[in-house]
Amino acid sequence: MLIRQIPIRNALSNYMYLLACEETLEAIAIDPLDHALCLKVAEELGWSIKTVANTHHHHDHIGGNEPVIAATGAELVAHVEAMQAIPNVDRGLQAGDTLKCGELNLKVMDTPGHTMSHICLYFSGAESESPALFCGDTLFNAGIGRCDLGGAPELMHQTFVEQIFPLADDVRVFPGHDYIENNLGFTLDREPDNQSAQSLRAEFKAGLSAESYVSTIGLEREINVFFRLDQAQVRTGIAVSLNTDERELDDQSTFVGLRRLRDEW
Ligand SMILES: [Zn+2]
């Protein structure tokens, strides 16, 4: 699979993606908010956009659909339950569906939590190419999406337990926003001794570019505090910050507590 990760450099630091089949150069555009830039990049690469896929209905993900479709005739796909919220969806997707483009196959994951109807797209890898997850506002580098814009943190936790935590360490993570530096700050606020988060933050301070940085699930297990619910420092910190008895905290309440603290951080 050919992947182009395109930072939009707007106030919300959105990413959009172009994914193309190596054989046919037919492409999927994921959340192409900056439609002019998306079309320009596709043209420069010689890729022809056949599908526009939205991870969820928020405006910063669907705002570029119309002009991209007008210019390319692409089919619009989204979560079947987001079809009322997103204008002109041609085809609704459900868990387990395969999104095809040329020879390229992506598995549709139904991942509620940020919104109630959110999909991630999973590429299972190929010879000498590791798997990849296009995760919208479900999983970010070193963090997770908000749950107060039409979602629910308990459901987000369930999504992570059932679908994100079990992913293999070599899965590359391609999120909907570039929030890694801020998120590392939150991980270190909760877990000041986290060596992996410290050293990655130092690399960014020394000039590593965040907007082209690609993490993996294996790295997320180290630097993303939402993956680290059983760490003593995390659990104790939640009990102190939320003024609750640590013995009453389980993984879900720790996750929900982290999300609440992150909202206010
Ligand atoms: Zn969103």
Report what the structure shows.
By secondary structure, this protein is an alpha/beta fold. The chain folds into two domains: 177 residues, Metallo-beta-lactamase, Chain A, CATH 3.60.15; 84 residues, no CATH class. It is 33% helix and 23% strand. The chain has nine helices and 14 strands. It has a six-stranded mixed sheet with strand order 1-2-3-4-5-6, covered by helices on one side. The protein has a six-stranded mixed sheet with strand order 7-8-9-10-13-14. A hairpin with a 2-residue loop joins strand 11 and strand 12. Helix 1 runs parallel beside helix 3, helix 4 crosses helix 9 and helix 8 packs across helix 9. The termini are far apart. The mean pLDDT is 97. The structure holds zinc ion (ZN). The site of zinc ion (ZN) has 4 residues, from loops.
Observed structural traits:
265 residues; alpha/beta; Metallo-beta-lactamase, Chain A; 6-stranded mixed beta sheet; 14 strands; 33% helix; 23% strand; globular; binds zinc ion; RibonucZ/Hydroxyglut_hydro; Hydroxyacylglutathione hydrolase; zinc
Brief characterization of the structure:
Zn(2+) 1 binds at residues 56, 58, 114, 137. The protein has helices at 35-45, 59-62, 65-72, 153-164, 180-190, 195-205, 217-223, 232-241, 251-264; strands at 2-7, 15-20, 26-30, 48-53, 75-79, 91-93, 98-101, 104-110, 119-123, 132-136, 139-140, 143-144, 172-175, 215-216. By secondary structure, the protein is α/β, with parallel strands linked by helices.
